[in-house]
Specification:
This protein is mainly α. It has helices at about 1-15, 15-35, 45-70, 75-95, 100-110, 115-120, 125-145, 150-180, 180-185, 190-215, 230-235, 250-270. The longest helix has 28 residues, at about 150-180.
Length: about 280
Amino acid sequence: MNKSIYTQWRDFFSHPLFIILATPLTYLLTGTIYAAQIVKLSLLPFFMLYLFILLNQFLEKMADNWLQKPEKVLTFILLVSETINLLVIIYFISSLNSLIGLLLVLYSLLIQGHSYLIKIGLDWFSIVMQAIFKGGILTYLSFSIQLSFIPNTLFLWSIPLIVLALLIELGNYQVKLEQITVLAQKKIVSIRNLHILFIGLLVFLYLSSFFILWPTFRYITLFLLLSMPMAVKVMRSFQPIKKEEMKRSSRLKQLSAYSILFLLIFAAIVSTRFF
């Protein structure tokens, strides 16, 4: 029975549709939950920011596919998607402020230009900047679209979120190196060294989370340990010696599912400060 329940939960968190829809939401949870304790939430800005992140997920894939094609022809769906993306940015500029709009423009350029930045050798710049935006900037924006300031506490809480985002980007990068021979030949560090860095970031993720959350939340912080079994499983699946034993798509789904689970637990812990 327990095994059956575990399997059901694992399949639920690993379902592609759930991952696609839940990933943008988890980026916004911590900032939104914090803002909800101070002011009544405005749902339209939240939905528009969620739509913006979800849309850029698809645009990243489309831009990647477009870059790999010999003939660079703009498709109708790409043009429509970019138009909607631009309209969302204009909405935030007109209804809130131009700084938020500028950050969203930079986020779009960074996400959609990820494959191109790797192609021209700016691998680590792209990885680090994506981690900062996904773990930090989106957290700040999710709060600031509800209020006109960002509390210092949120900057502190975002440190583990940035580390997690860096961990996810590193895992995606490792899979990309294994998949694209040309990139693998000119990579700066070996895949084995990437895995060592991956493990180091995983350890630092839990150390930083406990160090930052424990003074405020005490024993409730221990709920983060619920994500440890999946963390160990992800770590093992990304071992270089096992890279051929598991499909790359399955490893990426597992990595995304772990990220969602950790962020959900993190946000739940943060919410207990007020409820």
